[in-house]
Specification:
- 2 copies of one chain form a homodimer.
- Helices cover 37% and strands 12% of the residues of chain A.
- By secondary structure, chain A is of the alpha/beta class.
- A 6-stranded parallel beta sheet of chain A has the order 10-9-11-12-14-13, with helices on both faces. Chain A has a 5-stranded parallel beta sheet with strand order 1-2-3-5-4, sandwiched between helices. In chain A, strands 16-18-17-19-20 form a 5-stranded mixed beta sheet, sandwiched between helices.
- In chain A, helix 23 links the parallel strand 19 and strand 20.
- Chain A starts with 36 loop residues before the first helix and ends in a 13-residue tail after the last helix.
- The interface between A and B is large, with 173 and 174 residues.
- Chains A, B: GO terms for molecular function: aldehyde-lyase activity.
- Chains A, B: Belongs to the XFP family.
- Chains A, B: Keywords: Lyase, Thiamine pyrophosphate.
Chain lengths: 807, 807
């Protein structure tokens, strides 16, 4: 770098290291004798048994208790599973059970490294929690044999934790979301502690990196607590982790800054005393913070506990095989002995490894577990066991839904649909003061939902104004955190709403897909009961993001939903305030869906009175007679609006056509439930062909003005008979900061474009129309250009553009 | 919480606060006299002028220099823009120019809060950088008038920073990515410093929260530096920010933990001395770290500088209007006086506000700027100015592409496509040792690209093994960081590759869309030159994620690309190793595209020799004569494979049909360039109808076995004439941990399903076939069930399943 600067480096390079004083921030505890010798032995036996089973699950297809020397024939033909994280998951599980047994703690176990399924499943089997849900997984030889030999095979438990795994509330696939989910789960569950293991791989993700702030949005008076355990084992798939290379000073500074008290758990020779003491300390801190808040004297910026647990990757695996380190290296991440089925050295290493747990001391010859392995660790109360928590069975606490009609708008008025929704949500919150929440990326006011703030507050504990007051609204500028908290809240039996700018909901696209996979498998798993729906509200859509411009225009979340299983995917585009209310009331009642509702926050015409709106929403679509020629009977062309602004332009186009092509018989249809359009039988809401024809005719041209990307609706409709008569326009990735009507013009969704499409379509089917079609569409395009020129000259839309058409 | 725990809260509640000692970690500087009085006056004048212009841009349509008292008629009809962040952006800009002028620093200005466009544009005008690119924005009354009156209006600059804004390399829409982009920009630009403003709203996002770790992947010997400035003004749209409620101790701990030295810049009464001194200190620290590394003696874990700049939100706006605080509150976020056009109090407040900058002291009456406003601040060297940096003009440094044919595989062999690609990438890296990088979320080994590690290393400065050694590979388990770094690297004229598991690339869906918007506007902006392509490699696809299971199955990134503008969106599914090589060599040569390449890492048959592969890739699709009946002449049915495994099943289906329906004339087509399938003219690669018919016939049944979600391909093809003969299957969101072939079975993409589809299709068109169609399809489904039963019984696919069919 050229030139001169005033300051020389300060402090000098050597001193650029962090000061030793930081180490004082580590929580020091005397843990040497937390446990009796017997307790330590109990925990060790439990862990040995669980680790044995977990390792066996990865490798063995027979000889599962090492009844004889292992042979290559005992090894599964395909070795699947991730060993690296298992011993850590087992360690936490054992200690969680111990403390539950001792204190009666209500705890959920939320696991970030879901690839460590063997470590979790082995513990569930030892708990005898599996047999509660799956009669084939009894705690005897039959159940153990199945657990081990069928793991990761078709029909057995899959390689990652999912909704088939009892006690789980989190899909163990895409990393980064466990911590936020844990925060959502404990909200409004004041006695619950979610112990959340975050792997040091997962800790590198953005969603986790910001989820640490979750406590700033959790009121200890009304909600439970999360105890995060960062499992630092140093390696990802093949590279070292960030957290694995950070020293104590760096870690303690980072987590102190996030707002935590940091306790390192790393005495591997005395890990049981270390972890037991650390957990007891942590739960004591949690209790102190909660008691202070619940006695009306909340601690300012309470520093919640976090444990940083350093144990070797794949701890207790062979140290070295073929001259390469296994335990403590990335080689232990997945299958530590990948050639155990053919290589003698590896088979012998496996024999030693498995024998090291001493299975004969742990299991009876009939495959049952010796009582001393589990008795000292497991709680006596079945319902307290990790695998049998009622919160994870997702019994939906139904909402008391207020009458939405009381919030309905007068037909003909100009009303903000989200504004009307805000008044309804206010009532929802009043009636469901501990089972409903709103998670929003700081857009509540902007999206005109702020009426809810009349009866509740923003729950932001770091802000003096809202600290200690609770509140149903969380506004954090992290869509990932909003989504994770909503998932945790929903999967533990409650229900919420995630309002968002349309363009930015796609930030959680893959998170939502992970959630949908969890829900799909739950729906195929007998013991799962109902959950509420996951509800999204998209507003500030592209059609009215002419002010923020191109970057704020992206309706692709529709496509994300369309790819899901039809059994639970729903997309609604209510065309006015009354339809919005009817739709949202339905969503809050409905169970197990993923609902995407898209509407405007701007004042727009109320086309339907409340009863018409309700009927329209139940039907999903209907002919809008008032906007059609002769009430839409026997049309030459069908114009379809899907979405608020798209429908407005369709109605305006029908009015234009009345004026310019008075002989053209135009039918106007609005679709509010997108899923009706798919081919017969493709979705529970898909219209039969007969009903489809009743709305759209059998053979007349149909032009659809669609709110989303045209390609997505085209994909949905593909397979309906006779689509060659259907044309579709929508958002075509054109826009900038401009006027509202210019957005319609540049995306070819304006009334002029719709009217021209109608004429072109009709001309193909009707000689009368075709005579002057070219002239008329040219004239319409001329009008479009005139408006565009006006907009670019005056900076605004021509006067009257958005006046309601008269008929 | 019930029960007893060993430890009582420790330390007690009051002491749970962070210790005062942490405050010592703040960097202390004596900044009282960094600047001369004249220098302070210069900077203040520049800032006043810039702030004046920025505020005027939001409000005025006439009377732009307050030549007379403001009237309601001077106010724009629609007030757009975000004032809150502008004064901060101006402050940094002024000081950046000052230090460039003084030291000749090479600096890029990367702005997170892109909604502060007025603050940036006003500075660019003062720099006289706008007129270099837009002749209408001269630094005189004409240019100023246009800048102010046309801002946020059609034809003027949009409300957010984008590629139309000179000097910008980052779309100013979706928040969270600026910091990661800055890191990418300085890589392999050793003299460059990217000064990156991160807003305290943006700082709440996950992507930013983990991007702070970026320095851990930046070798100061080979790359430049990022100077992050966290702009803490305390409020988002309507809620306080996390960082705004964190105190000095929390912030200094957090950033020390991230690895930084923290300097607070917050003396608002002497902000120029404070910021000037702090920037000089920061640049001195950067130089020290770089010099140490470049002299071969790198500092261990260097603590790079970060500035935390606390200034009031909307600083210098009116203090209070209508009894409500404006400056320093969320009311200043957007338009502080929204009714200035009608309300007298607001108009008067605006008059006072704008007058407070003293425009008459800053501007000459002809609208030119007084020399004393800019002379003391702006660098003399035009190319050093923020708005004229060559890096931001994106002149693509072309790669020296090795001959891919040297890495090609033998026809008939079983070869991993990504393995072959790894050997090619090794050569790419050797030939382009400072202009090509790989950004991967820890999946390089898993995705079989590790051959590159023979000639380069993983660049991970926190790991003792790789520190100080540079390296072309960055593996951080944050897709957001990978994407942001790749964007910054690409938009400054270089080129890279982002390999990812297929299911998790969607994590960056909306980031990619933001990038595409930047690129789209750049392509419509005359002064932009070429950039390289943004290259994605998806492997570990759903079809071979039978081991990790359902959570790892999600091909939706294809749909993300399909929604983009056809001018730059490309999706390739090369069917074998040779096609992979040909495709990737093309992608590295091509300019300005977003390339998505999808292929397998497993050994799969090499169907085409290198010359056939090249021809096939150029054509995008062709009839595979070797797998067809009579070389595919005059077929009864066309079977199409898109994707590696889908194509294998199609070929196996053709072999099955030969056996079971020997009279059926089957043509096999492979599509490697997905975009050829869209309707004529829909995409530059879309086949004409004539060419489409040549491949797929005019009227014969076509069954497409597609790698992605069927709905996405259906959307793409909609509009091709005669689609009712086309059926499409693909990933239908079914899967678990199972065998590879079971994935085909449960998604109906197996050879049996393909063959049955062929027979059903042919039966609809051919009476001969229809006679026994039902019987034959039943038999095929029986075979499918038999295989399924085998898989569930034995846990593996039937022997020989993936043997290459013989013909």
């Amino acid at each position: 770098m050229p030139g001169q600067v005033l300051y020389e480096a300060n402090p000098p390079p050597e001193a650029s290291r962090l000061p030793e004083e930081l180490l004082k921030l580590r929580v020091q505890l005397d843990v040497t004798n937390v446990l009796t010798k017997d307790e330590v032995e109990s925990l060790k036996r439990f862990r040995r048994a669980a680790n044995y089973i977990a390792a066996a699950m990865i490798f063995l297809k027979s000889n599962i208790l090492l009844e004889k020397e292992l042979s290559h024939e005992d090894i599964k033909p395909r070795l699947l599973g991730h060993w690296g994280t298992c011993p850590g998951l087992v360690l936490v599980h054992a200690h969680l059970n111990r403390i539950i047994k001792k204190t009666g703690l209500d705890a959920l176990y939320v696991i970030g490294p879901g690839h460590g399924a063997p470590g979790y499943l082995s513990c569930l089997w030892l708990e005898d929690s599996l047999s509660k849900f799956y009669s084939e997984y009894t705690r005897d030889m039959k159940g153990l044999h199945r657990l081990i030999t069928k793991f990761s095979l078709p029909g057995g438990f899959p390689s990652h934790i999912n909704s088939e795994t009892p006690g789980a509330i989190h899909e163990g696939g895409e990393l980064g979301y466990a911590l936020g989910v844990a925060f959502g789960a404990v909200m409004d569950n004041p006695d619950l502690v979610a112990v959340c293991v975050v792997g040091d791989g997962e800790a590198e993700t953005g969603p986790t990196a910001t989820a640490w702030h979750g406590y700033k949005y959790l009121d200890p008076a009304e909600s439970g607590a999360v105890l995060p355990i960062v499992h630092v084992n140093g390696f990802k798939i093949s590279e070292r982790t960030i957290y694995g290379t950070m020293d104590d000073k760096e870690l303690v500074a980072l987590f102190s800054g996030y707002g935590y008290q940091v306790r390192f758990v790393e005495d591997v020779d005395h890990i049981d005393n270390d972890l037991a003491g650390s957990m007891e300390w942590a739960l004591g801190e949690i209790r102190t913070i909660q008691q202070a808040a619940r006695s009306g004297n909340p601690i300012v910026k309470p520093r919640w506990p976090v444990l940083i647990m350093r144990t070797p990757k794949g701890w207790s695996a062979p140290k070295k095989v073929h001259g390469e380190f296994i335990e403590g290296s990335f080689h232990a991440h997945q299958v530590p002995l990948p050639k155990a089925g053919e290589d003698d050295e590896e088979l012998s290493a496996l024999q030693s490894w498995l024998s090291s747990y001493g299975p004969r001391e742990l299991f009876n010859t009939d495959g049952t577990i010796k009582s001393e392995v589990v008795d000292g660790v497991l709680p006596d109360d079945e319902e307290k066991k990790i695998g049998q928590r009622k919160e994870a069975m997702r019994t939906f606490i139904e909402l008391d839904i207020p009458a939405w009609r009381e919030h309905s708008a007068e037909q003909g008025d100009m009303v903000s649909a989200t504004g009307a929704l805000g008044t309804f949500l206010k009532d929802v919150i009043e009636r469901n003061s501990s089972t409903f929440r709103i998670f929003s990326p700081d857009e509540l006011e902007s999206n005109k939902l702020s009426d809810v703030l009349k009866v509740t507050g923003r729950n932001f504990q770091w802000d003096v104004a809202s600290r200690g007051k609770g509140g149903r609204v969380i506004e954090i500028l992290s869509e990932h955190t909003c989504q994770a908290m909503l998932q945790g809240y929903t999967l533990t039996g409650r229900c919420g709403l995630f309002p968002s700018y349309e363009a930015f909901l796609g930030i959680v696209h893959t998170m939502m897909v992970q959630y949908s996979k969890f829900v799909k498998m739950a729906s195929e798993t007998k013991w799962h009961t109902n959950i509420g729906s996951l509800n999204y509200l998209e507003t500030s859509t592209w059609a009215r993001q002419e002010h923020n411009g191109f970057s704020h225009q992206n309706p692709s979340f529709i496509g994300a939903i369309l790819n899901l299983k039809p059994t639970f995917s729903r997309v609604y585009l209510p065309p006015d305030a009354n339809c919005m209310l009817s739709t949202m009331a339905h969503c809050f009642r409905a169970r197990g869906y993923i609902n995407l509702v898209i509407g405007s926050k701007q004042p727009t015409p109320v086309w339907l009175d409340k009863e018409e709106a309700d009927k329209h929403c139940i039907a999903g679509a209907s002919v809008w007679k008032f906007a059609s020629v002769d009430e839409g009977v026997n049309p030459d062309v069908v114009l379809v609006g899907v979405g608020v602004e798209m429908t407005f332009e369709v109605i305006a186009a029908a009015a234009l056509l009345r004026q310019h092509s008075p002989h053209l018989r135009v039918r106007v249809v609005n679709v509010t439930d997108l899923m009706i359009l798919g081919p017969e039988h493709s979705h529970p809401h898909a219209l039969t062909d007969t009903d489809f024809y009743a709305l759209f005719t059998e053979d007349k041209p149909v032009h659809i003005n669609f709110h989303g990307y045209p390609i997505e609706l085209k994909g949905l409709m593909f397979g309906r008979p006779g689509l060659s008569r259907v044309t579709i326009e929508g958002y075509r990735e054109e826009g900038t900061t401009t006027s509202p009507f210019d957005m319609m013009l540049c995306n070819r969704t304006s009334r002029y474009h719709v009217a021209a499409a109608a004429i072109r379509g009709a001309a193909l089917h009707n000689a009368k129309v075709s005579i002057d079609a070219h002239e008329k569409t040219s004239y319409l395009m001329h009008l479009a250009q005139k408006d565009k020129a006006y907009i670019y000259e005056h900076g605004t839309d021509p006067k009257g553009t958005f006046d309601k058409p008269t008929f």
